[in-house]
Amino acid sequence: MDVLIDAFFSFIYLLGNILLLGLLLTVLAIALRFLINEFIFRKEIEESLSGKDRLVLSVKIPSDNEQKADAMESFLLSLHRVWGSSKPLSFEMTSSQQFLHFYF
Fold first, then answer.
1. Does 72 lie in the same domain as 32?
2. What gap in Å lies between CA 51 and CA 54, rounded to an integer?
3. Mean pLDDT of 5-21
4. How does 54-66 read in b/e, with b if 16+ C-beta sit within 10 Å?
5. Averaged over 74-90, what is the pLDDT?
């Protein structure tokens, strides 16, 4: 009887380790996928900007946004500081299907 109990607990222990390893591999795969997507996104941005002096930046505000208008004001002030006043910058705000879109 003790042999069966020991075998059962050994099996449960092994099963737990396999599940933990599977979870760890899943998390690593998701993190790797995120890093690859981020790298590809940055590379596409760099390629699209090379040799060009124009850029369209689209900022989509999520529908469950809880930020106040001060957050957008702070964003615009930061953008102005980074962009500077020597380069032209245009700004457009649109509403489509109950979503706000900002284009710079």
1. no
2. 9
3. 89
4. eeeeeeeeeeeee
5. 75
pLDDT bucket at 20, cuts 50 / 70 / 90: very high
Domains of the chain: total: 2
Q: Which of 89, 90, 92, 94 is nearest to 103 (CA)?
A: 92
C-beta separation of 57 from 48 below 8 A = no
- Alpha-carbon gap, residue 104 to 88, rounded angstroms: 10
Q: Show the domain range for 63.
A: 56-104
What is the side-by-side strand order in the sheet with 92-96? 58-60, 99-103, 92-96
**Quick one: pLDDT band at residue 24, thresholds 50, 70, 90?**
very high
